[in-house]
Amino acid sequence: MNMLIKKFLLGLCAALCLTGIASAGEHGTPEEAVAMVKKAAAYLKEHGKEKAFAEFMNPHGQFRDRDMFINATSLDGVSLAHPNSKIVGKNVLQLKDVDGKAFIQSYIDIAKSKGKGWVDYKWPDPNTHVIDKKTTYVELVDGVILGCGIYKK
User: Fold this and answer.
1) β-bridge pairing 71-74 and 131-141
2) Is residue 109 part of a domain?
3) pLDDT in tens, 14-24
C-alpha cells in the first residue's frame, strides 16, 4: 500500500477515534465533579468568597466544563453562586425536583452531618431538556456548601 494512503488512513482512524471520545464525553463523570469541587474549595480558600463566587458564576471561567459547574449555597439555603443568576441571593431551600425531593435541604443535611457526599435527584438535562437522573457532589468549605452535579448516563 502506498505510504501516502497509509498516512491518510491512519489520520482518518485517529480522527474517528477522537470524535467518538468527544461525543462520549459530553457529560461529566463523578471523578470530574469531585475534582471540580476540590479545585473550587482551594480557589475559595486562596481568593476569598467574593472573588470565588464571581469566578464560579463566570460563564467562560475555569469552573464550567460541559454540563458541570460549581454552585455555592449557604447553610441556611441561600444561593451564593449559580449559573442562573436569578436565584443568587434567594433562599432555595424549598426547591424540589419532579418527585418532590427538596434536594437543597439534602445538600445541607449532608454538609452538616458528614461534611461531604452525594445527593441524587431528577433535573432537566441542559442539553436535551429531558428530566434525567442527576447526582451532585457537595462539600462544606468555610461555611459554604460547594456543589458540582453530573447527569447519570
Assistant:
1) unpaired
2) yes
3) 333 333 333 34
Q: Give the CA distances from residue 145 to residues 22, 100, 116, 141, 150, in Å, rounded to whole numbers and listed in that order.
A: 31, 21, 9, 6, 16
As a dihedral over the C-alpha atoms of residue 110, residue 113, residue 114, residue 119, rounded to 10 degrees, the angle is -10
32 domain-assigned? yes
Per-residue pLDDT reduced to its tens digit, 33-64:
999 999 999 999 999 999 999 999 999 999 99
Read off the C-alpha cell for 111.
Answer: 454538609
pLDDT attached to residue 112 = 97
- The CA distance from 116 to 58, in Å, is 24
Residues 110, 122, 20, CA angle at the centre, nearest 5°? Answer: 110
Assign 8 a pLDDT band (cuts: 50, 70, 90). very low
What domain range is 123 assigned to?
Answer: 27-151
Q: Domain of 68: which CATH number?
A: 3.30.450.20
